[in-house]
Amino acid sequence: MPGFIEQAEGAVTDMPKDFMTSGEFAGLRNVNLNSLRYYEKLNLLKPAWIDSKTKYRYFRLEQIATLDTILFFIEVGLPLNTLKNYINKDGNLDQRRVLKDGKKAIEDKLASMKEKLAVTEFDLMNLEQNRWCNEQEGVFTREIGERFFVVAPFHGEWEEPARREREIMALFWKTKEMGLLPIFPAGMLVHPGRTPATYSFFVQVLQPEVCEQSVLRIPKGTFSCLQTELTPKMDFPKLIRENFPSVGDGPVILSNMLRDTQHFDSRYVEIQVAGD
Question: Which fold has domain 134-274?
């Protein structure tokens, strides 16, 4: 019969020819029927027509744009239940506003992924360098690329390891609050030629867009290096003078080294003295 369609279990319903069944409509974007019902429950995607006898739901092809908007909202990671806030006074989904906010969410996600990629590339480079450095004995020489440190002076008794840990963590969080991206390694700057020797903590950050006054730039260069196990009462000025007799006023970089990612009973530091 023209204008009629056979349904499951032999039901017959009168459906206009320009409508699609729920299954046909869902198949256009590979979504399931439960999802369509959920979108309807949220008043985001109402069927174009509901058969009064069978309660079967039908859609028009042009409603695919609304479905695409909903799927886009889900894809960019925005909570679907907030999509109801985009329904205008006429009861229609404000697709323009959804797409604008979705575009912003995508841009934010891309920026986050770009940061993650930069950190991953740095970590890979750092691991490769550490693999070679960890095999060296005594003082050795290596090239180290340009670095950027956020620095904070240390005031107080150096022999208080708990306080040192607190202050380096505070500096780490301060770096994040500045909108910078802190990375490992962190460490200390020592001026061994001063009496008494002075210390500062640093957190390394990926290259900032603008090098602020609070960011110390360490140029690329050749460094004389020595790796040693870190102990609570280590006399760094003495250790530096013994192994680097020609060192000047500094600062000398003491960079934390990660030798074993599974065992943390030993910690290591690499002393780095810039060449002439």
Answer: Multidrug-efflux Transporter 1 Regulator Bmrr; Chain A (3.20.80)
> Dmax over Cα atoms in the chain, in whole Å?
102
* Cβ proximity of 150 and 215 under 8 Å: yes
Burial environment of residue 137 by CB neighbours within 10 A (0 to 12, 13 to 18, 19 or more): exposed
Strand locations in 103-197, DSSP E?
A: 140-144, 147-153, 182-191
Q: What is the pLDDT of residues 196-254, one digit of tens each?
A: 888 899 999 987 766 667 789 999 999 999 998 887 778 888 899 899 988 877 789 99
User: Which top CATH class is 4-106?
Assistant: mainly alpha
| Alpha helices for the chain (secondary structure H) | 22-27, 33-41, 64-75, 95-133, 161-177, 236-243
pTM over 0.90? The answer is no
| Tokens (6 digits) for 193 | 């030629």
Picking from 133, 151, 269, the residue whose alpha carbon sits closest to that of residue 204 is 151
Distance from C-alpha of 103 to C-alpha of 107, rounded to nearest angstrom: 6
Alpha-carbon gap, residue 224 to 120, rounded angstroms: 27
CB 97 within 8 A of CB 105: no
Q: 36: which DSSP letter?
A: H
